[in-house]
Amino acid sequence: MPSIRSSSRARTDSQRGFVLVIALVLAILYFMLMGLVMIDSSRAQTEAQRYRARVLAATLAENAAELACAQMVTLPGGVATLQDAQGTMTGTYQRFGMGTPNDKFEVNGEAETKGLLRLRATVFLEGHFEGNTIHIDFARHSQ
Predict the structure, then answer these.
(1) Number of H helices and number of E strands within the chain?
(2) What does the pLDDT look like over 2-49, one tens digit per residue?
(3) Within a domain: 3
(4) How far apart are alpha carbons 82 and 84 in whole angstroms?
(5) Considering the domain boundaries, does residue 1 fall inside one?
(6) Rounded distance between C-alpha atoms, residue 41 and residue 22, angstroms
């Protein structure tokens, strides 16, 4: 069995330097990985905000069209405007040939969201009446 006196201290000094270099490299790689994770999470958050604003704008535009249609059967036209914490919506409704068979109508809904991303969306509906039954012939949604 070798004695303790025969161990070489020179070999441990060179190993300490090697361990220090490995520790520094691992620390640099770790901080680079954390930087990449932060960049990716920031990108994902931006995409989520953009998606939310797009869905919200489309929903508000459809709500504006629905508000404008509230008196569709009895009135020849109307405008509805509403503003809340989510955004602003404006709906217009116009009926052509009231009282005639197959009356035609047009509904426009416009909305703009509030917040960091301000998006606009529109809804356009075109249709006709058969008595008190409503038929939508054409619908267009845009942003």
Answers:
(1) 1, 5
(2) 555 555 555 555 677 888 899 999 999 999 999 999 999 999 999 999
(3) no
(4) 7
(5) no
(6) 29
